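REQUEST ID: PR-0412
SUBMITTED BY: lab tech R.K.
PRIORITY: routine
TASK: structure prediction, single protein chain
INPUT:
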Amino acid sequence: MKAVLQRVANARVDISGRTVGAIDAGLLVLRCAERGAVDALADRMLAKILKLRIFADEAGKMNRSVQDIGGGLLVVSQFTLAADASAGNRPSFTQAAPPDEGRRLYDYFVAQARAAHSVVATGEFGADMQVHLLNDGPVTIPLQMTT
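STATUS: complete
OUTPUT:
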């Protein structure tokens, strides 16, 4: 399971000109379920995301988590994180979970996030989305969870 976290001042997801999810300060979480991913990986990833200390404290040092600052999570499914561009010029997405399993794991992750954190917004699985963000820092952190 892969994710890219972006620390944001604000972010939103639009579909066909309509905003479907938005947060103020917090984390934009672009996540991808890969083949063989299980709920336990999603749980580990969520725990890491919620505790990752990448927000500034009073001294300006990255020492606070999204939970510490009461920030939001904007969770967006992005199967293209599974891209393999090592051969040729067209990426392969064979490592991405099949759509039905990807949706199940996305829904599971979002449900667990909402149970553990007060501000969780989402995109829409499988939709053509426009993601708008003001990256804060910029701070961008790749995560990968394996069995």
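NOTES: The chain is about 25% helix and 40% strand.
REVIEWED BY: pending
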